[in-house]
Design brief:
It contains ten helices and nine strands. With about 240 residues, it is an alpha/beta fold. It binds SN-glycerol-3-phosphate and magnesium ion.
Length: about 240
């Protein structure tokens, strides 16, 4: 049984405010080889790291990212919602986040949530990923949105792509049809047969989001290639 890659979901998000540089740095410090993050596009076209389409849940502001400028977004506090200890943490741009891979052996799994201007955003994203190519391995782009993945491929045919979803078998069909390298499957949609079928076609399987050690061990036994977790440092410590 090979050991799956442990990926930090939104950084070390169990302990730090999700999708912030602090959460990413803490994941890297713990030795996470891969970090998942989510991106949206600001009103003025900046690629912004945040999970939700609005800033309401994870900052002290309100409104849709798509209606706020990058200058307005930078003024918000993205740490206090988690704990007053993290007051002053800011929303990161994708560019400054990817720059972490210039000096650390980490790769990013960039999950595209929504492109408001698909061609321009996809070109911006792929250029950024090329500027900050990792020291080892490759960054990857994932999405629930098939069109977004195809737009990214049109901008850069060489990037590994992952289709996200809950039905492993259906995702595998899509991955085969579009030659995607990965399927990123909700953990309830993963079976041994599905993993074997993926591997028979040269497609890798990432399972999300797994925070319990016992569950992670079960998926490792099924042969998945990567496990995405809010508690990546704890999983890494357990498998070492
Ligand atoms: O990439 C796996 C996972 O991040 C997909 O769901 O909602 O956490 O972005 P979500
Ligand atoms: Mg995500």
């Amino acid at each position: 049984m090979s050991t799956p890659i442990i990926e930090a979901h939104r950084g070390y998000s169990a302990a730090y405010p999700e999708n912030t540089l602090l959460a990413f740095r803490q994941a890297i410090a713990a030795g996470a080889p891969s970090i998942e993050l989510d991106i949206h596009v600001s009103a003025d076209g900046e690629l912004v790291v945040m999970h939700d389409a609005t800033v309401d849940r994870t900052t002290n502001g309100t409104g849709a990212i798509a209606n706020l400028s990058w200058t307005e977004l930078q003024r918000l506090d993205a740490g206090s919602w988690k704990s007053p200890t993290f007051a002053g943490e800011r929303i990161p741009s994708l560019e400054e986040t990817l720059a972490l891979s210039d000096s650390s052996p980490v790769v990013f799994n960039v999950e595209v949530k929504r492109f408001s201007d698909p061609v321009r955003s996809a070109e911006k994203l792929t250029a950024m990923l090329r500027r900050h190519a990792p020291r080892q391995g490759t960054h990857i782009v994932s999405s629930f949105d098939l069109d977004a993945l195809l737009q990214v491929r049109a901008a850069d045919a060489g990037l590994p792509l992952a289709i996200l979803g809950s039905d492993g078998v259906a995702l595998l069909e899509l991955a085969k049809k579009h030659s995607f390298s990965w399927v990123h499957v909700h953990h309830e949609g993963v079976t041994r047969d599905m993993v074997l079928a993926a591997h028979a076609h040269g497609i890798k399987v990432n399972v999300w989001t797994v925070d319990k050690l016992e569950l992670a061990q079960e998926y490792a036994k099924l042969g998945v290639d990567k496990i995405c977790s809010n508690r990546a440092p704890e999983l890494l410590a357990a498998i070492r």
